[in-house]
Design a protein that fits this description.
This protein is mainly beta. The chain has helices spanning about 10-20, 50, 350-360, 365-370; strands spanning about 5, 35, 45-50, 55-60, 75, 80-85, 90-95, 100-105, 120-125, 130-135, 140-145, 150-155, 160-165, 170-175, 185-190, 195-200, 210-215, 220-225, 230-235, 240, 245-250, 255-265, 275-280, 285-290, 305-310, 315-325, 330-335, 345-350, 380-389. It is built from four helices and 29 strands. A hairpin with a 4-residue loop joins strand 19 and strand 20 (about 240). Mean pLDDT is about 90; it is low at about 1-5 and about 10-30.
């Protein structure tokens, strides 16, 4: 199939004041676009987690075969929870009751295997497991038991930093280009052949930017790239966050783009540069974090994060502080972006040893206290599943 290209020449002026520049631009109303000032100081808004979300705790079955790894929660759905160790290649699949149902490891160098540090996701509509192997520039597909089905290699001169399910027949990938003269793009790919169906370019607001930081430590040069999530999954849309553009766009199932948030000042004009992320979102609140492009290895300091919340009813921004009422002590909770989890949900690991210590110090209450009372230090973690109202 011939590749289609969509070039969206959007300027901040056009987005903020004109609403729609021409028939080729995605239509937007002025009131739809929310401006996020990433330099401004905001008052603190304290939120009780139970007031803004349904909170569920799920103990995971612990057996010799199903031992949770440091890979954390990889994917979460109504049917499955996965834990994928990107370094060692082990995959664990649990059902929604926390019972282990499948495990395998297909790490290796053959055409049917994946390299270390690959990304994995489930395609439940097609009952398949998808591995995006950046190192070998290929997508490997298995059935739910780990049996190899097919391999699809990257398109020429493309590199898929991120790959997610778009619909039953299509992936969407973020094609990151390291050369300054080449544009980053979003690619729609066939799930059966890997063919590029369409390419969407969101142009840079100014100069092309990167999350890589050039630094030095003990006289040695080092290049560090911090985590960046260009595609965030929603219930009915996706958020596209092009690293060189100040605007976050909502992508519909019909491939229409709508600008929804824009940061100011512009990323490229700041020193250090500051990047805006939309982490989680509900009908009432949008939770963001900002990250500055600055590290100091000699002091052990990484990029600085700020956590903001936008109250859609009040149309106001705040510094967010979220506390969990199932703890009797003051613990600040952060709702981070999770690549393969919908943005109205957050799934976090609660370390077993920590829970036991909190229980012994009478720092828990409610359902969480009941669960902690029956834990052993060798048990798999308890998952806290947060679904925003």
């Amino acid at each position: 199939m011939k590749t289609g290209h969509i070039y969206l020449y959007l300027s901040l002026l056009c987005l903020l004041f004109l609403g729609s520049c021409s028939s080729k631009q995605p239509h937007t109303e002025e009131s739809e676009l929310v401006v996020v000032n990433v330099e401004k100081s905001y008052p603190v808004k304290k939120l009780k987690l139970q007031d803004i979300a349904k909170v569920e705790y799920l103990p995971l079955e612990t057996t010799d075969e199903f031992l949770w790894s440091r890979g954390g929660v990889n994917t979460f759905s109504d049917k499955y929870i996965t834990n994928f160790n990107r370094e060692k290649g082990d995959l664990l699949i649990f059902d929604r009751n926390g019972k282990g149902v499948a495990t395998f490891n297909r790490q290796g160098g053959s055409g049917e295997e994946y390299a270390p540090h690959s990304d994995l996701m489930l395609d439940e509509e097609n009952n398949e497991i998808i591995v995006n192997d950046n190192n070998q520039k290929k997508i490997v597909v298995y059935d739910m038991e780990g049996t190899f089905k097919r391999v699809m290699y990257y398109a020429e001169d493309k590199w898929y930093l991120s790959l997610v399910n778009y619909d039953k027949n299509t992936f969407i990938a973020y094609n990151r280009q390291t050369e300054d003269e080449k544009e980053n793009s979003f690619l729609f790919l066939s799930k059966t052949t890997g063919e590029v169906i369409e390419e969407m370019v969101i142009p840079a607001t100014g100069n092309k930017l990167s999350t890589r930081i050039e630094t030095s430590f003990n006289g040695q040069r080092a290049t560090i790239s911090f985590a960046y999530y260009p595609i965030t999954i929603g219930e009915s849309d996706f958020i596209l966050n092009e690293v060189s553009n100040d605007t976050l766009f909502a992508l519909s199932p019909s491939r229409e783009l709508r600008p929804i948030y824009v940061q100011t000042p512009s990323r490229g004009t700041m020193d250090p540069q500051v990047f805006l992320y939309l982490n989680k979102e509900s009908d009432r609140y949008a939770f963001f974090n900002t990250m500055d492009k600055k590290i100091d290895l000699s002091k052990g300091q990484g990029p600085k994060n700020r956590y903001l919340v936008y109250d859609k009813q009040e149309k106001a921004f705040y510094e967010s502080e979220i506390f969990n009422d199932d703890y009797t002590i003051d613990l600040n909770l952060f709702l981070h972006e999770q690549h393969f989890i919908q943005r109205n949900q957050s799934v976090q690991e609660l370390n077993t040893i920590n829970l036991i210590q909190f229980y012994e110090n009478n720092a828990l209450q409610g359902k969480l206290k009941e669960i902690a009372a029956n834990l052993d230090e060798e048990d798999n973690p308890v998952l806290m599943i947060v679904t925003l109202h």
